[in-house]
Amino acid sequence: NTPGHGIEYEVHIPAYFALKLNTNKDVEDFTMRSNQHNFGNLDDVLIDIRLKNGRKHHFAFQLKHKEAKNNKKLLPTNFAEKGDFNLAKYCESKREVTDFKMVNLPYRDHFFNVSFFDESSGLNGVYKFVDNSADFKRFFPRFSLFVRQKDSRNVEDNIINIFVNEYKADAHTAANYINFFRKWHKGEFTNNKLDKRVLNVLLVDLLLSPFVINCNAKVELVDANIRLFDVTVVEGTKDNLIRKFGTNVTLDGDDSQLLQLGKEYKIVDRFATALTTNKKQKIFNYVLSNPFFVEFYLISENLISRAVQLSQIIKMKPVLVGPNINPARFSHLKVFQNLEDLQQVDEDFFRKIANEFKISIQGRRAVSLQQLEEVAKLVGVEQLLQENFAVGEVSEELPKTYITRTVSAVYLNTEKVLDHSARTNDVLIINCNGKFGLIKHLVLRKGLNTAEIHQFDDGHYQEVILLENDCSKSQFDEICTKTRRNVHLVQLINEQSLLLVISSNNTLDSEELKIEGPPVEESDIYSYFNHPINFVCAQPGMGKSTLFKYLKNECPSRFWTVAVDLKEHNSFFKQKLRGVQILNHFLGESDRDRFTGEVKRVFAERKMLSFFFDGLDEVDCTSVDNVLDCVQELASMAIKLEQYEIPALQSCLGTDIDELCLPLPKDDGFLDTIKQRGDELGVITKFDDANRPVFDHETYAEFFACKWLYKNLKMAKMLQNCLFSEKYQNLKLILDILLAEDSPLHLAVIYKDLGQFERHLRGNVERDKGGRTPLHLACSYGTRYPPLKADKSWYRFDNDDIDPQKEEIQRKILTDLMKFDPYNEDALFKWTALEYALASQCLLAIEVIMQYRHRSTELYIDEAEKFLLCGQLDDMYKDRSHLTVAYYSSKFGFSNMLRIIADSRIFRNIFDDTHSLLIHLAVSGNHRVIVELLLEAQMKMG
Q: From which domain of life does this come (predicted)?
């Protein structure tokens, strides 16, 4: 040993080996020990390696260090009994070890047939020895001598290079790493065993310690949420996090158990009797997998990203805090940014959090996130850690001596309006406002019929549509498109009075129908007045502006409110304005944070905006008309998305729509408007040569088309053959999802989500809105028949495209659903589950049904054979020569198959070109029946 360097060599070599083994993709785990005295002269470093293929290797190293200037050429005498490297004593140590361990593992000579740090300039640095004496015969096959290796200083440089180049750290971090191994070598820890878990706790601590934020922000549900993911990203800053939650960290736990864990993972030495807060925090973060916050700097992006990868080896849960973090760096991991990520991983847990946490929109009363699902999807950790949080500006401040207001209204007499409807045959829609039974009694007493809004039929006269809840503007407009009669939407106040909400042609504006009624309290304004445009009129000084502040504060949370003091925007209203200009002007102001901007964008995209224009009487006379036009423009922008449905259906079906003869309503000028002015939403981008609309993305068209089919299921039945064709699989999927949106088990079947399937299978299972059981859908979304590929010999077929794991999941789902009768029909197509399987060409579903529910299946056998073989079988074989079913039937003597396809269109199309070849194949194979069938078919075809 070179004085001082021999010990360091025993520190540096295992430190280097640990780094290399940790990142080796073939190594599952390793255990490293030093100075294991019962290994005699082979005690410097002991390494046990477990590979991912299950194999294990065990190594004992003895390390020798000499300065280069003292190096001598190795001679045989060096290994003799009195030489510097007496092999006999190592042989003896090896014998003691094997006797002690009682094992004799076979030697794999290729494993270490390389040099580690060979500096021999091309000379071999690895020696093997041969000796047939009894003692050495078992020793030498397992023994290798590595010479001309790098010395201690060079190995240290290698370690530093790894930290600098691979981990993007510095030499100081590498020095701390080596210092840990120095303590380990001295035996300062409870044991000298070091494995992959301990090493990665050390590495993550060394790399991330400068960035860890001590922040007491633990919320139980959030903690459970973060644990579902590998890494969490928080858009924010360290200062903002500390400002909200403080730095006083609360760490509850059994101190003795924590101390034991600290010693086991070598976070503290074996002499420690207590834990500092810092050490305890590390145990919680790195060992117990508590979520911990890490400040993310762009300048240290590579280092932190590398540390995050290491943290996954032992299932740590880092939470990265910083601006502009790119989640794509962690695309191979499960990343949590907002609740939309959680919804994709665990729908039930998403619902639980959305129901538990509340949000205040612009200072209004907090409501459950469940009520604002689209907003909930944007919510991230920073918001959740506040439990109940706010977004947007604070509420309007009312005067301390605020006096409540009332507004007058024009009431209609209930009985007179019903009489008017019966007399004129106008369509009357009544928002029942929780008094459904009361108004239904009055309607029936007048001899009128009642209907639900989706049941409206223009052919049924003297019909009143009753709604338990509000009628939306889009529902009202839809009724207007279905009839030429006048349509009125009224709101029930009490048995005697109604309020007019909106009318297609206001024939109810008659003094005969009006009655006196009490003024409406300000707290009831939103219940009484839900017209798209409402005017508040009063003399100056009566408190209109103050009332607006109150109304803005009390606006339902499903709307984003925009208060506009008109006199401050006089110049803006000097010009004619388009809807997009108006929105950009009033919504384009900068937001205090990114989350607020995203929430506002969601409300804007869904047109859930409530504008409060104050001070119309203070606007320049020249601008009043523009202001009113602006209000009308905004009201019209509550766009009826239904208008896209028919164009979408035409776009998706193309020329097939003419053959289907669907009774579609006529276009009301919507497409002409888009041609002239363009589509403000950008959904329709242009028109093709056939004058059909082209959607910005095909998915938009498919969604709107399915929304129409969903509302017109009778028409969907006319499309059943289309929907089960390969061409329209996306349409079928979207329609099925819409029909199953309230049926979790059905959705789990569609998505083949085994976890959700097992969770919901135990509950009460209803049919979906199409009257289908989960079994109908399982048969509809089973794997299509596997393509068979002929090999060159033509004597066997392969189905190597099958995914065994997916097939096993599908088989389990089908088997578990056998409690449903596969012969019951659905309401949508009047099909059984077996017919769904036939139409979807899902052979596995047919097989399972035949296996478990075989009654009456003989009724389907002939139909199944004809359907699958006659119409589809040519697609089941994909060989290099594009050979047909007829070819294989003739070659191998499949007479039953040939009989089935003999009358098919496919067979007729190919017969003229191939009949000589087919007969030749049949004769060559001595298949007399096939020859007769082919000759008979040829004669039939003349």
A: Eukaryota
Q: What phi and psi values does residue 416 have, to the nearest 5 degrees? A: -65, -35
Query: Average pLDDT of 470-488?
Result: 82
Q: Tell me the per-residue pLDDT of 815-865, one tens digit each, with 9 for 90 and over.
A: 999 989 888 889 888 889 988 988 888 888 888 888 887 654 454 554 454
Cβ atoms of 774 and 836 within 8 Å: the answer is no
Which residue's entry shows tokens 């009129």?
Answer: 537
Q: What is the pLDDT of residue 496?
A: 87
Sheet of strand 231-235, all strands in order from the earlier edge strand to the far edge: 212-213, 292-295, 318-322, 231-235, 335-336
Q: Give 412-516's CATH code, choosing from 3.40.50, 3.30.110, 1.10.101, 1.10.357.
A: 3.40.50
The C-alpha angle with vertex 835 and arms to 831 and 839, in degrees rounded to 5, equals 115
Tell me the residue length of the chain. Answer: 942
d(CA 590, CA 311): 38
Instruction: Give the model's confidence band at 175: pLDDT under 50 very low, under 70 low, under 90 confident, else very high.
Output: very high
Residue pair 777/740 in contact by the 8 Å Cβ criterion: yes
* Gap between the Cα atoms of 167 and 302, Å rounded: 7
Q: Measuring CA to CA, which residue among 761, 742, 856, 754 is closest to residue 817?
A: 761
Instruction: Provide the pLDDT for residue 840.
Output: 85
Bridge-based pairing state of the strands 411-413 and 449-451? unpaired
Residue 238: count other Cβ atoms within 10 Å of its Cβ.
17
Query: How far, in Å, are 21, 56, 214, 345, 579 from residue 32 at the CA level?
Result: 11, 14, 33, 38, 70
Sole residue written with tokens 């410097």: 44
Handedness of CA 95, 101, 103, 106 (dihedral sign): negative
pLDDT at 255 over 60: yes
DSSP state of 877: B
Burial (0-12, 13-18, 19+ Cβ within 10 Å), 261: buried
In terms of phi and psi (left: phi > 0; alpha: psi -120 to 50; beta: otherwise), the region of 387 is: left
